Fold this sequence. Notes:
Strands 1, 2, 3, 4, 5 and 6 form a six-stranded antiparallel sheet that branches. About 30% of the residues lie in helices and about 40% in strands. It contains three helices and six strands.
Amino acid sequence: MSARTTYFGTVYPAECDHMGHLNVACYVQKFDAATWNFFFNIGITPSMLRDTSVGLAAVEQVLNYKKELMPGDVLEIRTRILDVSEKKVRFRHEMIHRESGQVAATCELLGVCFDRAAHKSRAFPPEILSKARADLEAAQGA
């Protein structure tokens, strides 16, 4: 998958800090919402997480802030898979200021699949791994 939209949103005044721009905690919230949409796109659905022992853990997160976002700004997050292995997936979000088209922030994450009952890492279910690998191949060809 080349970068796919995983979130649309707006900056609200209540999300801004004392300097008047989007607070760093709110960047993380918006990236988190995009993450769940990314997982859904590769087949990790809410019902799977509720009905099985499959779990996910973020083990690394790197954020880069590039452009201030102000109240009323409209944004889009696009997500691309960077790497996937039996138990891990690395992906990158780009937060785009829609009016200017500029990248406002990026967030790269490393997630690990784990067994919630056994409290240890596990392989992704085969159908998830297959979908993630297909998306990675598509991203590399893009």
